[in-house]
Amino acid sequence: MIAYKGELERTTSFKEKVRKQEDNVNAGLLTYPVLMASDILVHKANKVPVGKDQEQHLEIARTLARRFNNLYGVNLFPEPQAFNFGEDLVKVPGLDGSGKMGKSEGNGIYLYDDEKTIYKKVMKAVTDSGPTTPNSEMSEPVKNIFTLLKIVSTVDTVNYFTEAYNNCTIRYGDLKKQLAEDICKHTLPIRERIEKIYNDTDYLGKVARSGRDKARESAGLTMKEVRAAVGIKSF
Fold first, then answer.
1. Is 17 annotated in the active site?
2. pLDDT at residue 229, as a whole number
3. H helical segments located in the chain
4. The domain 1-91 is classified under which CATH number: 3.40.50.620, 1.10.10.10, 3.30.460.10, 3.40.50.1000?
5. Among 5, 15, 17, 224, the one annotated catalytic
6. Is 100 annotated as catalytic?
7. Domain spans of the chain?
8. Segment-wise mean pLDDT, segments of 10 residues, the chain, 235 residues
9. Active-site pick, 44, 47, 52, 103
């Protein structure tokens, strides 16, 4: 009623998926932004932890919130905003130079990857033949590597390799080794925590049940208000 087919067909993610898998265009692809918006709005979220690639989906959530409020003359749903710990939303690039890291793309580093796996993945990351003139423009794959470096490495490390690139002395092997090392510093402590609780079925069950109960209570209260707003009465 408040989500229009035409506007869903214009979303970047849908058009990209259609381009990549034209023989498997289904309702799941089309309605994914609505499902995401429902998960956000049913809990009346004000802040949503998303990356830059989800900006459009979050805008759809705001659109649907405004549309429902205006249609039924209520102020039920807040307009959710993106949240992160920095000033700008983050988009982590893929190791294949595609511009986006993701499981479906097969170009990602996972929090559960061990040190050997991380090094192996990073060393296989796409680059190019290297700069031949000082201060030349970086190719997209190399720019992606530097973006990852800026996420996990110190400013001094980033400046060192940037200078090496600009004066044409950079060695991509050294760059990748440093990147892998710095990624490991961030992810291996998380991996240790994952391993610690992975087989603790009692703890995991407790967390899952607690989350379920809280989500059910929150969603139930919202749906009660929604039914009242649209005129659905309980019998």
1. yes
2. 93
3. 5-9, 12-20, 27-41, 55-72, 115-123, 140-152, 155-166, 172-198, 201-230
4. 3.40.50.620
5. 17
6. yes
7. 1-91, 115-198
8. 85 81 82 92 93 84 95 95 77 74 76 94 92 92 91 95 96 96 96 92 96 96 94 78
9. 103
